[in-house]
User: What shape does this take?
Amino acid sequence: MNATNHKLSRLLMALLLISACGLSSAEELDETMDLDLGEDLEFIEIDEILDEDESAPTQVQAAPEPKLAAPEEEGEFVDLNQILYGGDAPGDSAEGTVAKKDPETMQQEMEQLKEKILQVNRDLFILEEDLLFPSSTQVNVFVSFDALEYFQLDGVTLKLNDRPISNHLYTERELKAMNRGAVQRLFTGNLPVGEHELVAIVTGIGPEGRDYKRAVSMAFEKTSGTKYIELKIEGDDLRKQPGFQLKQWE
Amino acid sequence: MDNAMGMKRQAAAMIIGLALLASPMAFAKKPPVGDQAPDFTLNSDGPFNLRLSEQKGYIVAVVFWASWCRSCPVQLQALEQLQKKYQEFGVKIWAVTLDKKRSDAEHYRQHKGLDLTILFDDQFSVSERYDIDDLPSSFIVDRDGIIRHLQDGFEPTDVDTFDTVLQSLVSE
Assistant: This one.
């Protein structure tokens, strides 16, 4: 009985010891975990300090970004011509381009540039016209001429609502163009919606070389759209005289 | 009462002064040498009207004159000689008359026997644009339409100046 008691007491002692050891080991584990966490934080802090230290080789410095940045830093000391002329010295680059580009290629490039400039000019012209003369208020007056046998056009004066708006004298070059069928835009302006009156006074040399002056007028209504009016100068074969007419186009 | 009237007069004078300053005539200024010559179209004594901008490639000397101007004949005759000298090099001389009656200018030309192209500025639109104060006045435009020489009035020694300017322009 004593022996069994003794065995039981030894077992209990052993269990107590084991449990005591287990508890202590758990506490130690917690302590080590705490220590590890603390050590980790300390390690990060050190890394951060090391990152700040340029002399110390770190993972950040070893990353490709700083390596890419390095030539840029060096670029501060690179000749400006390297940037402007694409890496070569100016003399070399100029010689290189001359050697590379033959006159035909350069001519083609020039032509392309000219075409682009013309296109931009056209766009600007259209934009300017849209801004200055919106379609809601725009009025255009054109002149067409087909009376070469009976009339030599000298000039046209336009009056809109009794106010002179245009006075044009025709030169030899313009007359040649109009005789070939050109239509001249004589006036572009803005008018409010409503009733208006246009008067065209045409001067020139009529049949038998006489000074010729005629006036034609037309009342018209300006609507919300663009208004087109044509001054037609046509030869009248029956009367052997020039005829003048104002015509509306919508 | 007098003070109020005085104030009104001062205000009216200020308004008129400002209006004069703002008028286009107040800003009329002779185009400087080196600038593009302002374009114009005028009736001529020939069959067609003439436009300055259509003369690119030619050297054009423009002289403003009138039949009643006493010192004009000397310059016109000198310019006629220069035109004969430089005609084959593309030099044109335009004599812009400020006569109100075209017949006066025509009669004057026939009387003096001038062989120059005459343009009629009877509305003074061009002479105002070029701010012509004295007669004769002249300017020379190069082949690109740039004003290269301006001259108010005329002295006999100015013929040499004209000759020199035309010579240099022709040789460019």
Summary: Helices of chain B lie at 2-22, 24-27, 72-86, 102-112, 125-129, 158-171. The longest strand of chain B covers residues 59-65. Chain B is about 40% helix and 20% strand.
